[in-house]
Amino acid sequence: xxxxxxxxxxxxxxxxxxxxxxxxxxxxxxxxxxxxxxxxxxxxxxxxxxxxxxxxxxxxxxxxxxxxxxxxxxxxxxxxxxxxxxxxxxxxxxxxxxxxxxxxxxxxxxxxxxxxxxxxxxxxxxxxxxxxxxxxxxxxxxxxxxxxxxxxxxxxxxxxxxxxxxxxxxxxxxxxxxxxxxxxxxxxxxxxxxxxxxxxxxxxxxxxxxxxxxxxxxxxxxxxxxxxxxxxxxxxxxxxxxxxxxxxxxxxxxxxxxxxxxxxxxxxxxxxxxxxxxxxxxxxxxxxxxxxxxxxxxxxxxxxxxxxxxxxxxxxxxxxxxxxxxxxxxxxxxxxxxxxxxxxxxxxxxxxxxxxxxxxxxxxxxxxxxxxxxx
Length: 375
Hints:
The protein is an alpha+beta fold. The chain is built from eight helices and 14 strands. The longest helix is centred in the last third of the chain and has 22 residues, at 320-341. It is globular.
C-alpha cells in the first residue's frame, strides 16, 4: 500500500496519475532484482539481496538529445559518477543507474557498453551511476551485479506505474531501521503556477528510528525497537550503526529549466528528506540529481557540425517557488512510499529488516499525534 492509498496526504499539491517520476512525459524506470540464497554469509556465494535500477530521462537515447541537469551534495559520504561533467556542461547524456556501493564500476561499464551497442560512432560516455550500501543484508563484497543485470534493467525501463520497495537497487536497503528501498512520487502544479510536473525517485537507505517523522509527527519515538526490532541490534553480525547508509534522490520535471535552475531544484530535495527525519548523519551519503526535459534540440556534446546556438526556454524566478514546494513534497512522499512498499526481508546471516506496514504506521501516527497534543 502506498502513502495515499493508506490515507496519508503529503503536502497540498496534487500528484500525477501514477504518483511517480514517470508522470513526467518521456521518463522511464526499469529494475533488475537479484535475490538468492539464505543463511550464513559466504563471500562470493551469498546470500544475495541486491540489484540495479535505471531512470531514462526521455524517450530514446539521451545522448541523441541531452537534457539540462544539475546536482546537490547534502553530505558526500557516497558516490554518483559523472557529476563533474554535469556541473561543467549542465547536461545529462546517459540514463541514470542506482545500485549498491561495490557495484558502481561494473554498472558504469555496462552503461558504456550499452551506448556503444546502439551507436558505434559514439566516441565517449560519462554515465551517471549512484550507490547506497546494502552490506547489512547482502553479500556486497561478492559483487553479484553483472552487465546482464544492467541490460535487463534497461530493457525493463518503461513509463506508467513504478514498482517500489525491495526491488532493483533498493532490494537490500534499510531506512530508519525498517526495510527501505525504491520509492517514487510526483506533483502536478496548477496552471496558475505553470502547470508543470515534478517527479522524484529515491533509493532510501538512511536514518535512525528515533528520527522518523510522518506528517510532522514523531512516529519513530512510538515505533521503538522494542516494538519493531532493528537489524542493527544484531551487533555480533552487523558492523555498521543506525544512521549509516545513504539516500539518492533523482528529480525530473517538464518545466523548461536551465542547468543552474536544476541545481536549485536538487537542493530542495533536502527539505523533503529533512521532513522525514534524515540529513544529519556523517556516515550517510545524501546526493541529489535533477534534470529537466522541458527544452528540446540540445545538441550532443562534441557533435561535429552542431549549430553555434540553439533556442532555449527558462522558467522565471517567480515561478521557481511552486517547483521548490513540489520537489519537497514529492521527495517526502517517495520516501514514505519506499518504506510502505518494502515488506520484511531476511538477508545474510539471518539478519532481518522488518517492513513498515500501513496499519502499523497509521496506528503509530495516531499515538504520536496524541502524545504531541498532550504537551
